[in-house]
Amino acid sequence: MDIPQERKVVTEIPGPRSREWFARRAAAVPQGVANIHPIVTARASGAIIEDVDGNRLIDFATGIAVLNVGHTSPAVVSAARRQLELDTHTCFHVTANEPYIALAERLNALAPGAFPKRTMFANSGAEAVENAIKIARYATKRTGVVTFDHAFHGRTLLAMSLTAKVMPYKQGFGPFAPEVYRLPFAYPYRCPTGGTEQTCAESCLAYAIDEMHKHIGEENIACVILEPIQGEGGFIVPAPEFVKGIADYCAEHGIVFIADEIQSGMGRAGRWFAIEDEGVVPDIVTSAKSLGGGLPISAVTGRAELMDAVHPGGLGGTYGGNPVAAAAALAVLDQIESEGLLERSRTLGAHLLERLREMQRRHEVIGDVRGRGMMTAIELVADRGTKEPLDPATGTRIVQEALRNGVVVLKAGTYDNVIRLLPPLTIDEGLLDEGLEVLELAIATATG
Ligand code: PLZ
Questions:
Q1: Confidence (pLDDT) at 448
Q2: Can you spell out the DSSP letters for 194-242?
Q3: What is the model's pTM?
Q4: Domain architecture of the chain: domains with CATH
């Protein structure tokens, strides 16, 4: 499906047909399953979503970081279609399939670390996280799991317990899984241990290590799980050396270090895995989202001795590594390689950061600009001096104003005051700049 890569607003947004569908939606779908944008998609390609009213929107959300290779990438669609006709599903536990095994080999080779690895597949990010923890617990015979402030790891019971933010993710859904411990994350803009941007890593690390020793006991900790760049928590790039310090501590005490790369991986932050820029080799890494290029698949990749610790039958599920999704994922990896998308993420990301910094000079409300590769964001504040977060309603007005003018953006952040940018890595530079202009105008309109 080839849609011209252009922004085109032909009705008010949401248009009449989207509104009609939303009336039906209200009567058919629970409100708990929220919609950020009151728009119904008709089709999508590259960096453009076309809604049911014929509006063409520049997509800076990509289904929450799923379309790094662009919507309906022809190579991905044709790989999936081919596999769909060959074999849609036999269940890997019943009879294996080629794409599953080939994709495991590819991820084992791509994940950091020059040691033997194994990969298992599931369907969603949350399931990958659950499996990573199961494996770490089994292999270490320990139960404690360490997670961080601002973390997001999913919505299933254990993953939700690891997730930090109560509203909307945890409110009313307890009791939570036991043996989960939360530590401060070295968030340089708002250092939780009172440090400056320069001392944040050191003070958070000291606090975290003391806490693990005193209140959990290293011999009880199965694993530490962290996002090398936090996603839902607000695109927080940790202060340099924090992640390394945590990983070194894990290695010293036989704690499994898990990098959750579900949002940051597959080129989003300029590398296959964002952890590569931290000089850290994780024991286990989780992937999902952009791995499948729109088809649901997630992966747990890790050291062979950890992954093989679990007895036969201890891991799996009906659909894990479904051949259609695995075939699509193989095409995604090929496209990232053949189109040089890791490098493109770094160069386009540098351009994007530069543009955002210029915007920051013009708009008092932009307190911080951050990111790596094409994983960038602005953090909005009511006051640059106190860093008081901008009220969520104003942030929402910015997002709505951008949408009205044909650009889909998402917020993030514990304080709901971050606007994150997740365009496809394949987006045309002109379209990216046009989208940024619309966003800047939306900021001016909503805060002016
Ligand atoms: N780990 C780092 O970003 C999913 C959540 C959207 P699933 N992030 C988008 C929402 O409102 O639920 C995510 C993530 C990281 C795990 C997950 C969970 O992945 O595929 O949504 O289960």
A1: 86
A2: S--TTTHHHHHHHHHHHHIIIII-GGGEEEEEE-SSBSTTT-BPPPTTH
A3: 0.98
A4: 16-66+340-447 (3.90.1150.10), 75-338 (3.40.640.10)
